[in-house]
Amino acid sequence: MNQTTATETAPIQVKHIDHVTLIVKDLDRSRDFYVGLLGMQEVPRPGFSFDGSWFQAGATQIHLILEHDQSSPAGLPAPDDRAAATRTHHFAFEVDDAYKAAEVLKQHGIPLHSEPKLRPDGFVQTFCIDPDGHTVELFSAPDA
Questions:
Q1: How far apart are CA 48 and CA 75, in angstroms?
Q2: Bridge partners of residue 48, in order along the sequence
Q3: Contact (CB, 8 A) for 87 and 35
Q4: Looking at the 3D structure of the chain, how many domains does it have?
Q5: Taking Cα atoms as reference points, which of 54, 25, 19, 20 lies closest to residue 131?
Q6: CA–CA separation, 50 vs 111, rounded Å?
Q7: Does residue 10 surpass a pLDDT of 80?
Q8: Residue 32 is part of which domain span?
Q9: pLDDT tens-digit series, residues 75-109
Q10: Does residue 4 lie in a domain region?
Q11: Edge-to-edge, what's the strand order for the sheet holding 41-43?
Q12: What is the pTM of this model?
């Protein structure tokens, strides 16, 4: 099936990614990472019956749910193989400079899955681990 035809005739038309939800063990520690380090803005959250926090990341939100007896467990197990760690479940944020971002992460004791590296399309990417073991990619566009 032709990709253009599939997109035009698909019965559902996705507009954009609205949010990513993560289960965490400590909201303050995660807030320090996503707001204090990555510069996201905390935004109001509806009055759910469980604790959590929402952060704005450009057009997308990160929804944190504090681990509780009716949620899934917090975090993800870290892959054993460093190469596989960049080819696992992850989400990505564009930053101005992935090299500089990696240095800041290291200065704050945030483990890197991989040092910044050049992708075949000219973008630079680095992968780190959030406080609950979620893999986060930070990437920057090729120099203009």
A1: 21
A2: none
A3: no
A4: 2
A5: 25
A6: 29
A7: yes
A8: 16-66
A9: 877 666 655 667 778 899 999 999 999 999 999 99
A10: no
A11: 19-24, 60-66, 52-57, 41-43
A12: 0.85
Q: Has residue 71 been placed in a domain?
A: no
Last residue of a domain, one of 42, 66, 90: 66
DSSP string, 25-70: S-HHHHHIIIIIIT--EEE-----SS-EEEEEETTEEEEEEE--TT
Closest CA to 21 of 77, 48, 60: 60
- The 3-state secondary structure of 98-120 reads HHHHHHHHHHCCCCEEEEEEECC
Compute CA distances 74 → 12, 23, 27, 94, 142, whole Å. 31, 5, 11, 25, 35
Q: In this structure, is residue 77 part of a structural domain?
A: no
Residue 6 covered by a domain: no
Report which residue type is found at 78. A
Please tell me the predicted confidence (pLDDT) of residue 84. 63
